[in-house]
Write a structure and sequence with these properties.
The chain has 2 helices and 2 strands. The protein is mainly alpha-helical and 119 residues long. Strands 1-2 form a two-stranded antiparallel ribbon.
């Protein structure tokens, strides 16, 4: 199992990960380090645990917002699918009505042609 050493707030941490996940883990650590660095610049050194907690809460807040946006988009997609299904039904109904009108017109034309031939 591969191990990756990441730095967060100037401290090195060695973590194990699955094969092929090394770059992903390094990217996640860099993302967390960015939050920790920004927090430490804003609030000063308040201890690693507190910085990690605050950074974790910031990341959790971002995740919460992203999940809310995903849910809203999923709801919008579902509404659009329903609207599309309704439009398809209306379109099919209109097509059926046009076909009926054309059939009736064709029948009338045949009747007129038949009367003209008979006269």
């Amino acid at each position: 199992m591969p191990q990756v050493t990441v730095k967060i707030n100037g401290r090195s941490y060695t973590l194990a990960c699955d094969e092929g996940e090394e770059e992903h883990l390094e990217g996640l650590a860099a993302y967390l380090d960015k939050h920790v660095t920004n927090l430490s610049q804003g609030v000063g050194q308040v201890g690693d645990q507190r910085l990690m907690l605050m950074a974790g809460l910031l990341v959790a807040d971002e995740l919460s917002e992203a999940l809310g946006e995903v849910k809203a988009l999923q709801d919008e997609v579902a509404a659009l699918k329903d609207a599309r299904a309704g439009a398809a039904t209306k379109s099919q109904d209109a097509e059926n009505q046009v076909a009926e009108v054309l059939e009736a017109a064709a029948k009338r034309l045949e009747d007129i042609a038949g009367r003209l031939e008979a006269s």
